[in-house]
């Protein structure tokens, strides 16, 4: 994904970025956890995009792909014809992070407003131009060379509304994974998440939990 971002997305944009911000470079790296993000260091003028290994693993499973913003973006904005597959999710993630880089360079990354209209204008553009499709083709080609199967089949995603219907205010739920598993009681049911008031060890804390990460505790 790093190589795809550097070759396919950064390659053609580099000159434009450097005209605005001389000497800036991009380095992509793999992180160990789920965290996937773009960062810019104004001193070294280095953009860094980190792709979390666990984020990649999660996108190989239908259930674990559910909660991600990239899944909602592909479906909601009709990227790759709205088809959610591992291959499309990973290609889209490259575009999403790179859109943050372009957003940052164009001065549209505002505090407290990260996924704003300017961001989606850039992301739409990456999908409408050949960029996103080229990233997808690159990922398929490279994984084939390395003997990794990158699934292109459409994932059977459970409708979020069906999932939400299983939860109600007052339910006791668990969320997160050991050793960070937490417990609480639902105090509000939102559109895709529940607001959970921590109980026991987590009393006093409040969480907004995606429905896919939540289960009833017994
Ligand atoms: Zn983002």
TrEMBL record:
This is SprT-like domain-containing protein. It comes from Marinobacter halodurans.
